């Protein structure tokens, strides 16, 4: 999660610095997506891919493209992912981190 937070903060900073120069930056937060990633990263047994239905890569790409063309900053794909982002505003970080660890872990742990 720290890497994702860094990428979002970095992207927002670049977006702000480039404002007015004709360059836009859109950060897409897709959540679990149906690609070969989970297999190649050996994550097919993680709760993230077993319990949550991964989104279609095509749908995520179209969503991201529309957001880019609309000039949006940070966009989150999927209702569950949007709920998790909103929850971060209401729930203490240590609870969110425990939930994320459980979601990203495996059933056997």
Please characterize this protein's 3D structure.
This protein has six helices and four strands, in the order H-E-E-H-H-E-H-E-H-H. By secondary structure, it is mainly alpha-helical. It has one domain. The strands form two sheets. Strands 1-4 form a two-stranded parallel sheet. A two-stranded parallel ribbon has the order 2-3.
How many runs of DSSP E, i.e. beta strands? 4
Strand order of the largest sheet: 1-4
Principal-axes geometry comes out as globular
- Overall tally of domains: 1
Share of helix, binned:
55-70%
Please give a handful of descriptors for the protein shown:
two-stranded parallel sheet; 57% helix; mainly alpha; 6 helices
Structure summary:
By secondary structure, this protein is mainly alpha-helical.
What's the structural blueprint in terms of helices and strands?
Layout: H1 2-18, E1 27-29, E2 33-34, H2 37-40, H3 47-50, E3 55-56, H4 57-69, E4 74-76, H5 79-90, H6 93-104
Parallel strand pairs: 1-4, 2-3
